[in-house]
Amino acid sequence: MTNQNLLAIAKEHGSPVYVYDAEKIESQYKRLTGAFNKVKNLRINYAVKALSNLAVLQLIHGFGAGMDTVSIQEVRLALAAGIDPSKIMFTPNGVSLDELEAVAKMGVQINIDNLSILEQFGTKHPKTPVCVRINPHVMAGGNTNISVGHIDSKFGISIHQIPHLLRIVKNTGMNINGIHMHTGSDILDIDVFLHAAEILFDTAKDFKDLEFLDFGSGFKVPYKEGDIETNIEELGEKLSKRFNAFEKNYGKPLTLVFEPGKFLVSEAGKFLVQVNVIKQTTSTVFAQVDSGFNHLIRPMFYGSRHEITNISNPKGRERFYSVVGYICETDTFATNRRIAEIAEGDILAFSNSGAYCFSMASNYNSRYRPAEVLFLDGKAHLIRERETFDDLIKNQIPLKEKVKA
Length: 405
Description:
Elements: H1 3-13, E1 17-21, H2 22-35, E2 42-47, H3 54-62, E3 66-69, H4 72-80, E4 88-90, H5 97-105, E5 109-112, H6 115-124, E6 130-135, E7 157-158, H7 162-172, E8 176-180, H8 190-204, E9 212-214, H9 232-250, E10 255-258, H10 262-265, E11 269-280, E12 285-289, H11 298-301, E13 308-310, E14 318-324, E15 332-340, E16 347-350, E17 371-376, E18 379-384, H12 389-393
């Protein structure tokens, strides 16, 4: 997508607006599958939570991907996108037995990450295939909120509890067809990932009827020019060799599964905002835009960095700006960032806005959630309309009687 494409989209659909580049999503998918082309059976399950628009799910499924879901609502979204239940994985955390059973009835592969629910489900449904999520106790991830494999994590069954897990499987006679792990997001050190993989392989030896091993995801993507990222090609070479050796020793075909979300869609996304006000204080020049952390919470939540470009004046002289939103709280997107000179009315583009941006958006301050646009085959396709006041009050029920003072 060019700046002219983005400016045309902002003009037609208004701001703020999320824009996704289908070509970039496809190239990331091909990069990942290419890195593991020496594995005979590879399955990519896109992590729906990253960006759950139906059109995006259809696009990624068209490349050959299945879906990784974390709620029954995400399962229903995947089904609504036309995806076969057999291509959907359900990897929840802390959900009720009722929700797990409801998803299992849909024909979706379920993944259980605690002993209590595993025993209850196995007792009632011993013939239903179940994947088990283990916690390898490997600390990985770029932020404590997205590091999920450490010893105090709420995710997964501890490797130290494997004897308990095996006892439950034996007593219930349940069918364990997969083993899963996910250590965290923004993983840079391939050796850490490979260490966790060895733990997964070692655990898998205790299960004789496996069909797949799911290694999660968490690959780091670049957030600025020259930024470090996960070396997918090196990981592919090393893990493929190890997986193929394990498969041979295991004695039956296995599928290697990944569940990338951010890796596929983060770099494909641009978030476009308009500058409402340039405000100068004693020490700071603020560019105040028509959005806030209600639409892009990641900088405030994770401390994440999003490159910001003035696409209305890309060749202008660079100056220092703090880019802030219109929410009635501190909502700073960037502090003292060098950006081409900004004037009121200019359109700014936030990079890496494909993952966990719209999906984490809210109506805080009673603001509408923005439109979404997919740039596909050289054309801009509206894939979600901007909310209206009717959407805001749709499910609200006003009092029928006048409140007495």
